[in-house]
Each structure stands twice: as C-alpha cells, then as structure tokens.
Amino acid sequence: MKILLVEDEQLLADALEHILMKHGYLVDCAYDGTEGYLFAETGIYDIIILDRMLPGMDGVTIMQRLRAKNIQTPIIMLTARGSVDDRVSGLDAGANDYLIKPFATKELLARIRAQTRVNAKNDPSQLACGDLFLDTKSCEATLKNISVKLTLKETQLLEYLMRNKGQVLAKETILNRVWGFDSESDTANLDVYIFFLRKKINFGQCGLKLETVRGVGFKLKEVAHV
Fold it and tell me: Residue 10 class from Cβ within 10 Å (0-12 exposed, 13-18 middle, 19+ buried)?
C-alpha cells in the first residue's frame, strides 16, 4: 500500500514515515501544502495522511481541490484543532477520518487499517480484465486455466495497468506509482518490465492489447480475440 504523508513538522513526519515503512507501507513525504497537493493530484496513492495547518496551501483547500477533480483517495486529517466545528468542517471538505494531535501511532495505524478494510470491498486481490485473471496475493496471472508466475514488481505493474484499463498512462506516472518517487529506476527499467509481461502473457489471447503510446507511455485495452 502506498501512502502520502503531508506534514510540515519534519521531525514528526520523519518519525511517522519510519513507523509506517516499518509496518510495510510505501511512503512519500511532502512538507508543505503546495508540494503535497502536487503529489496528491497524481492519484497514485491508496491513502493520504494530511495535516490541516500547512504552509503554501492548507489541508482543507487541498481536500476541496482533490474532490473537485474527483480524486477520491481516502484522507486521514491530522490537526491540533479539535473542536466540533473544526472536525465537521474537515469532514465536510472531504476527509474520511480525523485524528487530533497528539495521537498514539497505534491509533493512526488502526485508522489506516480501517480505511483499507473499507476500500477492500471494492478493491479485491482478484482482478479480471478480458480473459486475463490476476491474483495479486499469489502473484499469478491466469489465462484459460494456464497459470503464469510473476515477480512482485511484474504483478504490481500488471495490477496498475489492469486497474486503469483503457487509460493512457504516462511512463513517469507508472514509475511513481509502482516504483515510488524516491526510486532510482527510470523509463528504461519500466520498458524492460513491459517486455517481461509481453513475453510471459499472450495479451491477444486474453482479448487485450498492451499498447505503446509513442512519446507518452502505455495503455491496456480490450480488443477482439486473435
């Protein structure tokens, strides 16, 4: 799971990043509202942990702009302002949950898990696209009862393509979502993994085409069987 943490208190942000990564989450950090919004509007995150009072752009404004763009990423708002009116305004602006500072990290982790359970109802590990089936837990793709074992990174890449079927995905967007902002991987590395997927999976027999969009990126789309 990929989390965006937007918090201007760098010591707190660094401590939370360490805790979240220790629990298996991938984390990107932003230390002001403007940067946080630029990260968040990519839509590549599973959860956003967002401080309310931020330099550049406050948390409420960030949420309002994201929701106006129909980016529905779950948001847990952090704030030192705990009045009922503050909580109501945060929730009305688009927050899914609200946590008042200071808080116990185990409570934050519990709230992240709660949001994960809510999303899991609409985000199962079993994916289908055309006649291709993907089990993200076992890292197996299946076509006509033939199973193909994938590496974790191949699985994550195919999952992202399947979840965004029909959309042209820029290479940089794919890299950020699958490898992370801090990764040293580049577009050449992505091209290699696309090659691996094409070699392992006959997309035409699945009623799919993994299309290269020149100068932009890739697109997984449904086509007639070949």
Answer: exposed
* Dmax (CA) of the chain: 61
- Given a contact cutoff of 8 angstroms between Cβ atoms, the answer to whether 25 and 2 are in contact is yes
Evaluated on CA atoms 157, 160, 161, 167, the torsion sign reads: negative
Could you give the domains of the chain?
Answer: 2-120 (3.40.50.2300), 126-222 (1.10.10.10)
Smallest CA-to-CA distance from 33 within 61, 67, 57 is with: 57
End-to-end CA distance of the chain: 35
**Per-residue pLDDT reduced to its tens digit, 21-46:** 988 888 999 999 999 999 998 888 88
Position 180 pLDDT exceeds 70: yes
Asked if 38 and 55 touch (Cβ cutoff 8 Å), the reply is no
pLDDT of the residue at 44: 80
- Strands 26-30 and 2-6, bridge-based pairing: parallel
Between CA 59 and CA 44 the distance in angstroms is: 18
